[in-house]
């Protein structure tokens, strides 16, 4: 049995490598992280020890929504 991967496996590995090394892939990752960060901010405001007023929460959600 050969120690080398079959050609089909190497081709798939090359495709994955090309995707991961591409600028569009990392731009997409950055966009996802930016959106998640905004959601985390809102969740922290909602889940804080001190309960925030609903008006503040709605304002925070609207502000973050605009950033998205």
TrEMBL record:
This is Uncharacterized protein. It comes from Colocasia esculenta (Wild taro).
